[in-house]
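Worked Example 4.2. Read the sequence first, then its C-alpha cells.
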Amino acid sequence: MTMATVTTSDGVEIFYKDWGPRDAQPIVFHHGWPLSSDDWDAQLLFFVNKGYRVIAHDRRGHGRSAQVSEGHDMDHYAADASAVAEHLDLRNAVHIGHSTGGGEVARYVAKYGEPQGRVAKAVLVAAIPPLMLKTVSNPGGLAIEVFDGLRAGLAANRSQFFLDVPGGPFYGFNREGAAVIPGAVQNWWRQGMLGSAKAHYDGIKAFSETDQTEDLKAIGVPTLVMHGDDDQIVPIDDSAHLSVKLLKNGTLKVYEGYSHGMLTVNADVLNPDLLAFIES
C-alpha cells in the first residue's frame, strides 16, 4: 500500500493513495466537498479486499493536497484527476465520484478519460450534475441564496459549520428517528478542517454553478447513477433524474429514504451494488 503525491502542470502537489495489485483493474474514487480521500475508507477496504487496485486522491486545497490559492473550479479538478491517472498510467479504470466528486468524474471522463482511452465505466453517486443552481433554463435548481448561506456559514465559523452539516442534513441525522453516528460527524469535521478554508469557500461556486450538461452528453461508457430519494443536499429531481436522461449509456438506481451521505452510513448496501455494476 502506498501514499504519494504527483505535481500537476501548474505546480500543485496532489496527494493520492494507491492500494492493491498493480496488475488489477483500477477503481478511482473522487470525494465530495469539503472532504478528502478518507471519505472512501469503506469502499477502499471493500474493493482492495476483492482484489482490485484502488486509487483515491485529495482534491487541490482539500485533505493533504497543496493549499493553493487558485484553481478551485471544475476544469482544474478534472485536470488534477487526469494528472493522477496519467502519472499512474491507469487503463480500463472505473471512476466513481460522490457529490462534487461526481461532477469531477463527469468532467474528467468527458474531457480526458474517454478521449485518452483510459476509462471503462463511471459511477455518479449523489452527484451534482447537471447543474445545482436555479436558472431560467434550470428552474428546478436551488436558489443562489442557498449557496450564499453556505458561504456565510463557512466564513463565520467554519469549525461549527463543519459539525452542523454532517450532524444534520448530510447524513439525514436531522430526520425523526434517525440513529445518529457521532463518529461519522467527527470524521466529517476532521476531514473538512484538514483542508483550506479558501478552497472550500471557492468550491461552493464550483459545485453549484458549473453546468455539466455537455459533459454528460459526451460520456459514452456505461455509467451508473446512484441517488437517495431523501438527499437533502443534492435533491434527486434536479440531479440524478436529469443526468440519466443526458447520458448515452446511463442507468439510474434510486435508494428509498437514503441520505446524501449514504456511501458511509449505508455502505453495506451500496458496496455490493457497486461491485455488481463493475463486474457486469
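Now turn to a second chain, presented in exactly the same format:
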Amino acid sequence: MTRKLQKLPENPYQVAGYQAAIIEAPQQFGITQETLPEPGEGEVRVKIEGCGVCASTIPVWEGRDWFDYPREAGAPGHEGWGVIDAVGKGVQGFAKRERVTGLSYKAYATHDIARAEDLVKLPDFLDGYPFPGEPLGCVMNIFSRSAIKKGQTVAVVGCGFMGLLLIQLAKSAGAKVIGISRREFSLEEAANAGADHTIKLDDHYKIIEEVKKITGGNFCERVIEATGIEWPLNLSIELTAERGKLIVAGYHQDGMRTINVQMLNWRGIDMISAHERDSKNYIKGIKEAIEAIRYRHMDPFPYFTHTYSLEDIEKAYQLLTSRPDGFIKALILNQ
C-alpha cells in the first residue's frame, strides 16, 4: 500500500502547501506535503485535475541501478491537465481559472509549475473530460510522421493505448489496418477501433505469412511498432513493404537493439523514430489531438479504463506492469 511520509492536515488546502506523490524507493510511493511554489517569469501554476500514467516510467518505478531515490516530489508525472491558479510575470494569453493541458513534469501532485509556452487551453467541448495532453500529442506526432494515405495497408504492432488510437487515425485516413498484439483483449479492442484484421503477437513466421496473405504478397506500406521490445521491432521490419515506412513509436529504453539491417537495405525501407524532444512539436501535436477529437477522427475516452487517487498510485503501476484484461490506461485524479 502507499505509505504516507508524514501526517497531513485534515484539510491540506487550508495551508500554503500542496500534496505530491513521491517514489521513495523502488515500487514504493509515499505522499508528501510540500510548500506551494510561486510561478516564475513566463510560468503558470496549474491546480492539477489529473495525470495519466505512462509506460515509459515503469523503469523508475521498478528501480534501476542508474536511478537515485527518493525521486523529486510529483515526478515522473508528465501527463497532467488542470486549471491555472497563479500566473507569473510576463505571461500573456493565459489567465487564472482557464483549463489547460500540456507539458509539466511533476504532475503526480495537486499542483505543478509549467512554462506558459508549453500549455494549451482546453476548449469548452472538453469540459468535464480528462485530457492528458502529452500522450495524445505523441499519438498525433506519430501519425503525422507516418504519412498514411488512403488505400494503404497499415500494420500496428502493439495495440495498447497509443496503438489503438493510431488504428482509429489510420482508419480515418482511409487505410486498411492490421492490428497485431499479444493479449486477446487488445485484439478485441483493435477490432472495435476499426482494424480490418487482427493477428496474435506470438509466432514470428506465422504472423509474416498471415500478413503476406492479407496483402497479396506485398506486405504493408506502413508499419507502426508500438511495443518498445526488440522482437516485435524486427518483426515489423519483415512486415514492411518495399519502399515502405517503418515507424518506431515504441520507447526502447532498456539497452541496445540488434535489428535486421539486411532486410531494411534490401527493401529500401524508411525507418523513422517518431519521438519528439522539441516542446513546440509536442504542443503542435496536442492542438492537433484536440481537433482530431472534435472531428471524431479519434476517441481516447473509452481507453481511460482505470482511475486512482494519489494515495493509490501504486495500484495504477501494478496494473500497468501486469496489464490484466480490461486495462488500457490509468489516470490519477485529484478530488
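Notes for the reader: Confidence is low (pLDDT under 50) at residues 1-15. The first strand starts at residue 3 and ends at 4.
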